[in-house]
Amino acid sequence: MNSELQKLVAVREYNPEVDKAFIMATFLRGLYYGDSWFSLMPKNNFMNAYKQVVSALIDRSGVYIACLKDDPNVILGYSIVSKDGSTLHWVFVKSIWRKNGVGKALLPKNLKCVTHLTALGKQLLPKFENCIFDPFNL
């Protein structure tokens, strides 16, 4: 993140009461519409079944929230990362905040694996040296 953005943005811990609904909605929509494979199934089937997967990932992972420093309840983006920091389950940044380092600030430093990919993720994965896609590393 550039220095101007660092003055506005903070990364905070996850607060389920404030953050969970937003994370569930954006993760599920992003995965359903972001990958043609998931969108082949009926939307209700996917949403009802996969919300259990997302909920379990949230419960057993680290969740980091990018927010406004002046108002921590304004979510700019988030990441869901394994406790050891080697596996990225999902990263999301609101479109207006993309391409200026918010997403990169949410990524683990020792990233070795990603478990979910969208079309954009497929384009970005080669930029991470020694990082693999493994949907079974949940």
Summarize the structure.
This protein has 138 residues and is an alpha/beta fold. It is 39% helix and 22% strand.
Write the layout of secondary structure elements.
Layout: H1 3-8, E1 9-13, H2 16-34, H3 43-60, E2 62-68, E3 75-81, E4 87-93, H4 102-106, E5 113-114, H5 119-124, E6 132-133
Parallel strand pairs: 4-5, 5-6
Antiparallel strand pairs: 1-2, 2-3, 3-4
Number of strands: 6
Helicity level: 25-40%
- The radius of gyration computed from the alpha-carbon positions, rounded to a whole number of angstroms, is 15 Å
Largest sheet, in brief, is:
6 strands, mixed
Structure description:
The chain has helices at residues 3-8, 16-34, 43-60, 102-106, 119-124, and strands at residues 9-13, 62-68, 75-81, 87-93, 113-114, 132-133. With 138 residues, the protein is of the alpha/beta class. The chain has a six-stranded mixed β-sheet. Helix 2 packs across helix 3. The longest helix has 19 residues, at 16-34.
